[in-house]
Each structure stands twice: as C-alpha cells, then as structure tokens.
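Support request, please re-run this one:
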Amino acid sequence: MASLPERSLNLDDSFPCPVCRQGQIEAIVLTEAFSCSFCRHILAANLDAQQVKVVDSSQPLLWEWTGQKWQLVRGEDAGELSLLVLLTAVVLTIIPASLVWLSGLIFPPLEQTSSLTFSTLWALVTLFAHLGFVLWLVGEYYQLPFYVAAKVRVLRFQTARRS
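Re-run finished. Output below.
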C-alpha cells in the first residue's frame, strides 16, 4: 500500500475529522477555524503549531497534524485526570451494585426458589445500568470518535425518519 504524501495543515485543503473520523474538516470562511461535514464540530486552527482544538465542547481536546494523520496531544495533567476518571467510574459502578448485593445477603428472602435470587439479579441490573451511565458520561466528556460517529448516525436516522 502506497503511503499518502505529507502535507501541512492549511486553510485551503480539507482534512479528515479528528473528532469523529468519519467526515472532512474544511475551513470556515474568514476565520482560522475548521468545521466537520459529518459531526459539525468546530475546531480552532493553530497553523504554526499544526494543531486544531475543539472549541464547541466542554473538553478542550487538541490534535496535532503529522502530515498524514491526526495525533491526540495530551497535557501535563492527563495522567492525573485519567486516574481520577477511572477511580470515579469504578466507585460509581461497583459501590451501588455491592450495596444491593450486600443487602440481599444480610436480609435474604424467606423462600429461596432458585440459586439466582432476586437481590442478586437486581445487583446485576444495577451494575450494568451504572456501567452504562458511566460509559455514556465518558463518551460525552472525551468525545470518543466511535461514540460521536454513532451519536451523529442516530440523530441523522431520527431526522430522516421524521421527514
């Protein structure tokens, strides 16, 4: 497979979107910013550093153009933030399910008809529900490419169905 020719980041070309990796980003007229044709994110360009930054998101993600592809630029405190997010995700997922399971052990049902009790089943439902919420929040906060692409596809499907 032939490698793509290297090119610098400029306002005259279109580039693959670093956020959703589905669309193309093109310059917005009279600005030093790009807009994606698929996910509609706006990215401020720093042409000297060959970087773009998402400006319409709560998480200011920054990518650097290497000449052929985008590379995520991590800040100095990225490791601390990732550890904090991981610890919070574990606490929000494990603690509620453990409390439900523990209450089922402390206060067992009067009649046990099967090996899978209602409290164990309820603890599993709690675990998966909280895990779903945590994954949704991580996807929203970090604007993960597969999450953004899936969200845009669902929104386009809903708008196409309405029309």
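The chain has two domains: 15-73, 78-153. The first strand starts at residue 15 and ends at 16.
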